């Protein structure tokens, strides 16, 4: 059994460690002024941009044995399609996991964009399909479609992308899309269809994932909860005569000893603004996301120490306090982190998206010290381009 392991590209910038918010790398941090201070000795810019920093991380992940990287998509990031195109010229084997919400692209246009990227990079594009959590953030994108209907729209979108991929003519009449005699032309139609990593924890999400996903992608949760989630999604795909794999997004802090790893977490926790902790303990952020609700279910009612967020051995539920994003991750020695990843493989995980701050240095650390200990992991093969 081969386990694919991806890294994460911090398109929103990042602090230089878990222990402090400054100095900050990248130019998305509100109020960040390090661009005017860094660079040449006299304070002038040296021509090194945030894109160069992302390229360094992609190189580090490629060198360290990761299959590729997730390129996040949020209101405070650059567009992942564009970043992927830029980084493609900087790497040779690195695969680009592109998150997007299907409702914001025409499906035929998306098929042409993807096939073009596949052709230019030797088949290195992957989809991370996100249907959206609703609430204020969904309205930021101008999307007013209800929760379950968004998954219906996603299903129709992927029906069409698959339908036109091999040349057509393909026609479709759905609730959200109508297409007549569409199809990609050669040579685009001869490119490999991208693997689909599908995010979503609701029943509506599982129905859509079971039809189209190659990998069902979830945040890390308590291990017993993940076992049940994997069972549910595989049961639905089995009923359709399909097979699906499962993938887990995991933030990690890995150090030579467990004590060093928890000390890193403690120092990060102790530096957090009390206002951020109060917000963290709030019951809801207005999102309709079932996955986010499952993450919040493991929060304590009071929070006085980083230890209050340990939900099971080596699993800590405070990562969103340190850098935003998902809540739960793995903390421990190199052997412990690899061991817990192996346990997830035994539960049914076939792939991982790992992350740690700062992503540049940690790509080397995790690649050199943790990945070789994960059973089933192998370095990616060189992909022919052209």
In short:
With 386 residues, the chain is an alpha/beta fold. The chain has a domain at 4-28 and 64-254 and 331-373: Luciferase-like domain (TIM Barrel), CATH 3.20.20.30.
Structural description of this entry:
The protein is of the alpha/beta class and 386 residues long. It has a domain at 4-28 and 64-254 and 331-373: Alpha-Beta Barrel (TIM Barrel). The chain contains 14 helices and 15 strands. The chain has helices at 34-37, 50-63, 80-88, 107-121, 135-140, 147-165, 203-212, 223-239, 258-270, 274-281, 290-296, 319-323, 334-347, 359-369; strands at 4-8, 14-17, 20-25, 68-70, 95-100, 125-129, 170-173, 178-182, 196-199, 215-219, 245-255, 310-312, 315-316, 329-333, 349-355. The protein has an eight-stranded parallel beta barrel with strand order 1-4-5-6-9-10-11-15, surrounded by eight helices. Helix 8 links the parallel strand 10 and strand 11. Helix 7 (203-212) crosses helix 8 (223-239). The longest helix has 19 residues, at 147-165. It is globular, with a radius of gyration of 21 Å. The protein starts with a strand and ends in a 17-residue tail after the last helix. Residues 31-37 and 382-386 have low confidence and may be disordered.
**Can you tell me the CATH class of the domain at 4-28 and 64-254 and 331-373?**
Alpha Beta
At the fourth CATH level, what is the homologous superfamily of the domain at 4-28 and 64-254 and 331-373?
A: Luciferase-like domain
pLDDT below 50 for ≥5 consecutive residues: which ranges? 31-37, 382-386
- How much helix is in the residues? 25-40%
CATH architecture grouping of the domain at 4-28 and 64-254 and 331-373: Alpha-Beta Barrel
Strand residue percentage: 15-25%
Q: Which structural class best describes the helix and strand composition?
A: alpha/beta
Sheet with most strands: strand arrangement: 1-4-5-6-9-10-11-15
Question: What best-fitting shape do the alpha-carbon axes yield?
Answer: globular
**Average pLDDT:** 87
The number of helices is: 14
